[in-house]
């Protein structure tokens, strides 16, 4: 994937991961990556490994927690779930994201005159 | 702010158990690869092809581990050590510059601590008397002179002692200029004052040697 596209992801991937864990409950890294790819209808072809950097950042901020568990194919896997402060953060960020998006949308749609 | 503290604590924890975290991350990636491979096989790929594509979609494992370590490590600490080493190397190369830097620091620190010592004793530390915040000095000013004097006359002092309602005690002091010869050594000038009888009880202090004057003996 190109450099500038990964740059766009940097800021928003954390938010997408947080939202995914909020709707899906407990998930492992693979699950999070697959879910984001599916929801975006494969428009976002990320290196699935970049999910882990996002997960580490969110863990460090205390917005998600992790615990070892067993995956569907009976293998040890680390499962992540959102915390209460993570939900709060998600609400705040989603709101500010929508606000920014709507402002940019309005600016881009503005017609001459 | 709180998030920052939490992040720092988390980084320190990771740093302490970094070897275990490294191992766990390797396990996590291995599990991820396996799930990707399974999915690819389900889609009809040969096992070898499925494994190759899984690696492509996950990304370089070495690089992911490096990023993981960087995120969890304490870059502040590591760069700090590097900076200090670099600074020492540069200083060794330029002894003149080092001398100027050291002197500047020495003078700066010296001046600062001298000023602080003065401010501390003059302004910050309370006087070593009982109720230092209630102590005042009384001066006087003549009706037609704008300038205040820092002294009052003896009759005024007596009037204040007898009649002032605002003070619980009033004592007089007066400078003495004399050299006091101590024993057989050189004459030494000592700071001394004449004080009225109520002076020591007012301050609430006891003399180091001897006893305090009492009003009835004066």
Tell me briefly what this model is.
Chain A is of the alpha+beta class. Chain A has helices spanning 3-24, 29-39, 50-60, 84-109; strands at residues 27-28, 64-70, 76-82.
Count of β-strands of chain B: 4
**CATH level-3 fold name of chain A:** Arc Repressor Mutant, subunit A
CATH class of chain A: Mainly Alpha
**Mean pLDDT score of chain B, rounded?**
85
Largest sheet of chain A: 3 strands, antiparallel
Tell me the fraction of residues in β-strands of chain A, as a range.
Answer: 5-15%
| Backbone structural class of chain A | alpha+beta
Contiguous runs where pLDDT drops below 50 for at least 5 residues of chain A: none
Spatial strand arrangement across the major sheet of chain B: 1-4
Would you tell me the structural class of the helices and strands of chain B? mainly alpha
Helix content of chain A: 55-70%
List how many beta strands of chain A DSSP finds.
3
Sheet having the most strands of chain B: 2 strands, antiparallel
Q: Which CATH architecture of chain A would you pick?
A: Orthogonal Bundle
Going across the major beta sheet of chain A, what is the strand order? Answer: 1-3-2
What would you say this structure looks like, in words?
The complex is a heterodimer of chains A (113) and B (218). The N and C termini of chain A lie far apart (39 Å). Chain A is an alpha+beta fold and 113 residues long. Chain A has helices spanning 3-24, 29-39, 50-60, 84-109; strands at residues 27-28, 64-70, 76-82. The model of chain A has no long low-confidence stretch (mean pLDDT 85). In chain A, strands 1-3-2 form a three-stranded antiparallel β-sheet. Chain B is mostly helical. Chain B has eight helices and four strands. Chain B has helices at 2-16, 18-42, 47-58, 61-72, 75-93, 95-124, 154-163, 199-203; strands spanning 173-176, 179-181, 187-189, 192-195. Chain B has a two-stranded antiparallel ribbon with strand order 1-4. A two-stranded antiparallel sheet of chain B has the order 2-3. The chains are: A alpha+beta (113), B mainly alpha (218). The interface between A and B is medium-sized, with 22 and 27 residues.
């Amino acid at each position: 994937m190109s450099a500038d596209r990964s740059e766009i992801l940097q800021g928003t991937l954390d938010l997408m991961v947080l939202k995914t864990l909020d709707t899906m409950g407990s998930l492992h890294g693979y699950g999070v990556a697959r879910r984001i790819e599916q929801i975006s209808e494969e428009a976002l072809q990320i290196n699935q490994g970049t999910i882990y950097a996002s997960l580490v950042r969110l863990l460090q901020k205390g917005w998600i927690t992790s615990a070892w568990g067993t995956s569907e194919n009976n293998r040890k896997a680390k499962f992540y779930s959102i915390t209460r402060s993570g939900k709060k953060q998600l609400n705040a960020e989603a709101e500010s994201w929508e606000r920014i998006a709507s402002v940019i949308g309005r600016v881009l749609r503005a017609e001459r005159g | 702010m709180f998030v920052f503290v939490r992040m720092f604590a988390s980084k320190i924890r990771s740093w302490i158990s970094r070897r275990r975290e490294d191992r766990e991350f390797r396990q996590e990636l291995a599990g991820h690869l396996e799930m990707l491979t399974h999915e690819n096989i389900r889609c009809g790929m040969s096992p070898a092809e499925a494994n190759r594509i899984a690696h492509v979609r996950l990304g370089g494992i070495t690089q992911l581990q490096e990023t993981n370590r960087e995120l969890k490590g304490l870059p502040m600490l590591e760069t700090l050590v590097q900076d200090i080493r670099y600074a020492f190397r540069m200083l060794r190369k330029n002894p003149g510059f080092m001398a100027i830097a050291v002197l500047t620091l020495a003078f700066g620190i010296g001046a600062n601590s001298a000023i602080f010592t003065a401010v501390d004793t003059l302004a910050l530390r309370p006087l070593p008397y009982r109720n230092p915040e209630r102590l005042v000095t009384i001066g006087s000013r003549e009706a037609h002179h704008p300038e205040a004097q820092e002294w009052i006359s003896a009759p005024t002092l007596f009037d204040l002692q007898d009649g002032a309602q605002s003070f619980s005690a009033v004592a007089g002091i007066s400078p003495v200029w004399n050299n006091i010869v101590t024993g057989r050594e050189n004459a030494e000038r000592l700071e001394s004052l004449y004080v009225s009888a109520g002076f020591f009880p007012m301050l609430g202090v006891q003399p180091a040697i001897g006893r305090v004057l009492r009003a009835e003996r004066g």
